Write the structure tokens for this entry.
Amino acid sequence: MHDLFQGFVDMLFQADGEAALVGAMLYAANALDLSNFAYLAMPRLSTLRPDVISNYPAAWINRYAACHYERIDPVIRHALNHSGAFTWGPDFAPLDALRPEQQLFDEASQFGIKYGFTIPIHDHDGSTAVITFATSDRRAAFCRSIRRNAQLLRLLATNFHAHARRRTRVIQPFESTGLSRRQIECLNWAAQGKSTWEIGKIIGVSQRTAAFHLEKAKEKLGARNITQAVARLVATNGLPHRTTGD
């Protein structure tokens, strides 16, 4: 799975538009027996439409947007109020749905979207995004993939969100993160899958010093782990090319 994740991250870093982002997610999803996905970033103002990146049928995406279904979608409502990933569909524990919401589910199923696994992403600035992997029926392969790869799917979702978010945010200087050049450099190499020992050898410091820089970067970005720190730095301004100096 390491090669799959690394390939996915490499594709995200090279993505120059929405089509490339979709391609990166499909590369990973197809390898995990998951074919349909939707990324939805909720706007701060309810009058605005959410940012959507998906391989769902275009007709359904357009109808969902035109009807502002995100305002009544039980999946979105649950994601806004909970941090844990969850499954949904007729054979799973049902989400609370009133008549208009049930109509939404009925319409979605006509486009092959009947069961799903949804991952909420709550950013430190209070914004929320949602990534869903969906299928038309409860296939054994779909359920097995969700069960076996739940943690990996969360990593895919977090990294995808970080890169997708760059499309809708104003780019800020790296200085705004409070990170030193060395801390950014270590995060850059960590994003490429390098261990602290390897990072130390590359930049000419001890493994302990490399680990120290990563730990300080994590603290400054308010991240729980290095993966999240990388994602937050990418969301702020992307990772730079290799830097030098302290």
Observations:
- The longest strand covers residues 115-122.
- Residues 11 and 210 are 26 Å apart (CA to CA).
- Residues 140-165 form the longest helix (26 residues).
- Residues 169-175, 240-246 have pLDDT under 50 and may be disordered.
